[in-house]
Amino acid sequence: MLFRFVLAATLVALCHAAVPASAARVSEVETRIGGVAVTLWSPLPLEYIAKDVAPMPVVVFSHGMYMCPTQSRFLMAALATRGYLVIAPRHADSNCQYSFFPELSRLGFKPSPLWTEDDFRDRADDIRRIVATLPADPRFRTRADFNRVGLAGHSLGGYTVLGLGGAWPSWRLNTVGAILALSPYTLPFQREAGLRGLSAPVMYQIGSLDPVFSLPIGGSGFAFEHSPAPKYLVEIDGAAHMAWTDLGTTHREAIVDYAVAFFERYLRGRGGDVLDTRLPGVSTLLVAERAAP
Prior knowledge:
Elements: H1 2-15, E1 27-33, E2 36-42, E3 56-62, H2 73-81, E4 85-89, H3 121-133, E5 144-154, H4 156-167, E6 176-182, E7 202-207, H5 211-218, H6 223-226, E8 231-236, H7 252-268, E9 282-288
Helix pairs in contact: 2-7
């Protein structure tokens, strides 16, 4: 009961968190794509974006367990202001009603070595359905660049996008150009090929005060080491697990700057020089842009 109360209180706080200033300068709408409920961010309302302008790269964001598509408005809005179309599905485990009694069967208490590609496959199916539907949807047909698709996810959402990137081979989404994993749950991928099967550049962002999630990523023999290059590891100093949500206030500038630079380099082929620079508020930066000989 205490767990449920704390969880619900956290979700309510997220619901009422102040909207970042950048979010007020972009369009945020709720809609459906391929039958999936989503929140959509774009630089302007889609109807005001001329059909003859260059189409926008797409970033699909997967929220954390029991969280909402809008959990990380500050980051979604920052991407939208830079010309990205950001789509965040509402997964089945979302608790956007902020119930004090969420379905405990979705908690994933199963030990990580027992997880298989069937665990939370519905999340992957949501994203696959969205990406498959976009080209036929008249709202996006000329406004979204279907050849430049990035994935981002926080916590269980990080698990989701890593699986789609090839960590679960049966989930692989071949159109993925870049994967941003924000304090992701990676332990289920520690066996078999796992993260060695990633087929897109990956950036891990972790927090120095989030050991349960960060140690299996940055430690020797774990997620970052197993992932093929190009790969990046950014450890935010003083960040706990919720730093990537609107409840967090720890070094947001670094979180945004690295995320934007990463997608700029691998979805747009632009500079992204900040990727090689340890910014203020970053305790560790690891970069491997080429495979070891």
